[in-house]
Amino acid sequence: MWCLFVIGGASLLPVAPLSAQEAMLEFPIRPFNVDVMLRQQTFAPDDREIGVQVGITALRYGNLEVRASYQYFSIHTQEFRTDQHSVFLNPRWNNFIDILDFPTHKPLNRIIRHLLFGPLEDRAVPYVGLLAGGVLPGPGNHAPGHLIGGQVGVRFPVARSLSVDIGVQYTQYGVDFRGEAGQAQQWVFLTGVRF
After folding, report:
1. CATH topology of domain 27-194
2. Quick check: 111 and 121 in contact, CB under 8 A?
3. How far apart are CA 188 and CA 167, in angstroms?
4. If we measure between CA atoms, which residue out of 149, 132, 145, 130 comes closest to residue 177?
């Protein structure tokens, strides 16, 4: 009987509502994302390849989120072999177009969404982001090289806890290739899923 009294009393305690602007750390960390990359790079080597990128979103604050990502790329030919491992943080601003919510009779953000996404304008989540981290092997093959860059893309929620993500990412990083240190610049077209 006392158990029912405790449970009933606990249900009367005030509960602080969680607003959309509060930062929250999600456990288990999610959503997860898996992206397939079509890649073009200017140094180490100057080539086009396919790679894989995986990541997690751990922190959200309104339309801002911070993701952590791992990227793997490998080329195996008769002449050489290279493996590159990148780890980076990816802060993103979701729905950045909504800052253009003026004039009141025909907001610019609605016009842009309609032109870019057509009938999916209300489901699309456009984003811009920054990238900062490291890559192995770094210049001189002694320590990780720096990795900096940015991205722009859009996420389309498909079902509960599942969305399709399409984006373009630019990175610049220090890398060691065949014993030679240099700066690589990379454009990547990403398409993948988040769950």
Report:
1. Porin (2.40.160)
2. no
3. 8
4. 145
CA-to-CA distance for 191 and 87, rounded, in angstroms? 19
The string of pLDDT tens digits covering residues 13-38 is 444 444 444 555 555 556 888 988 77
pTM of the entire predicted model: 0.78
Sketch the domain layout of the chain as residue ranges.
27-194
Closest CA to 133 of 69, 38, 45, 50: 69
User: Each residue of 58-77: pLDDT tens digit?
Assistant: 888 889 999 999 998 877 66
Q: Quick count: other Cβ atoms within 10 Å of Cβ 92?
A: 22
Taking the C-alpha atoms of residue 17 and residue 192, their distance in angstroms, rounded to an integer, is 33
Pairwise CA distance, residues 47 & 121, whole Å: 36
Q: Is 120 helix (H, G, I), strand (E, B) or coil?
A: helix
Bond preceding residue 137 cis, omega within 30 of 0: yes
Q: Pairing mode, if any, of strands 32-41 and 47-61?
A: antiparallel
Nearby residues of 185 by Cβ (< 8 Å), 6 or more positions away: 41, 42, 43, 170, 171, 172
Helix (H) or strand (E) holding 54: strand 47-61
**Token reading at 24:** 């929250």
| Angle CA 117–120–126, to nearest 5 | 55
